[in-house]
Amino acid sequence: MFAKFADLVAYNLFGLEAETRLGESVHFFFYDTTKIIFLLSIMIFFISIIRSYFPPEKTKKLLSNYRKITGHIMASLLGVVTPFCSCSSVPIFIGFVESGIPLGITFSFLITSPIVNEVALVMLYTIFGWQIGTLYLVSGILVGIIGGLVIEALGMEKHVEEYVYQISSEESEIEELEWSDRINFAKGEVKEIVSRVWKYVIIGIGIGAAIHGYAPAELLAEYAGPNNPLSVIAAVIVGIPLYANAVGTIPIVEALMGKGVALGTALSFMMATTALSLPALIILRKVIKPKLITVFVTVVGISIIGVGYMFNFIMSLV
């Protein structure tokens, strides 16, 4: 269905040739745009039904009952089904800390949530298959757990801004929803999320289309392929200053891989742009001090690099 629509637009409406660079780029753009927007709408609806069972207050209550390694595991798992963007990181951080949730467990949630955006995860399963999707899911959860455990072990509580500990908020009552309320919530989430992320999807697909049609495959394969030991590190360094959510980077990852870029290198770039983007770090600076930000970036960055090399190693065995 999506391929036929892209054929119609690129080759019939625009009159482009199928084997030309421009024709391939335009076809890629319209194929991925229709496919991803359709998948987003369907998946957001069903995932939002699940999410309706985990409002922020319930998430805080659940996490406040766990400590040690169990708390980090629970925080990372809840981060999968309760995504947030950089603009919401500060209120979530404050809410968790003032609820008495340990700092390390809070960071396990904050690290995992943007990396393993569950909508993007479904798209990864759809585009790359269940093996890669599952490996990415497990890797994202492990990065969150490891990051939280290291921050906890270092005792970084004093590097949180003092005012955060002084904030006291009233406990909100957890509202019990009827099934019809959950359906309406899911419909609202589809409208709200698609309206918020569509521009990132379009930008990501546009970049992916340009890479697909014009990027020199031989050059990318040489410098970002599995045989270059520094490609993963370079991908993380390049990804940090950028801002994109996981959904917007998937078309770029798809196009890069199509040109010979190693899977681990492409996915480490995706993780870096979502978990360590410069705008997110600037916003987090409102609640944590520079030393904790440095530790956060270092720990998460090293973990992501490790995941990238793991993916490349696994793919070399296939």
Automatic annotation (TrEMBL):
Main location: membrane
Transmembrane segments: 36-54, 75-97, 135-155, 197-217, 229-253, 265-285, 292-315
Keyword Transmembrane listed: yes
An example Gene Ontology CC term for this record: plasma membrane
Keywords of the record: Cell membrane, Membrane, Transmembrane, Transmembrane helix
Localization annotation: Cell membrane
Membrane topology: Multi-pass membrane protein
Cell membrane is among the record's keywords: yes
Entry-linked Pfam families: ArsP_1 (PF03773)
Superkingdom, taxonomy of origin: Bacteria
Family as reported in the entry's similarity comment: Belongs to the UPF0718 family.
PANTHER family: PERMEASE RV2963-RELATED
Designated name of the protein: Permease
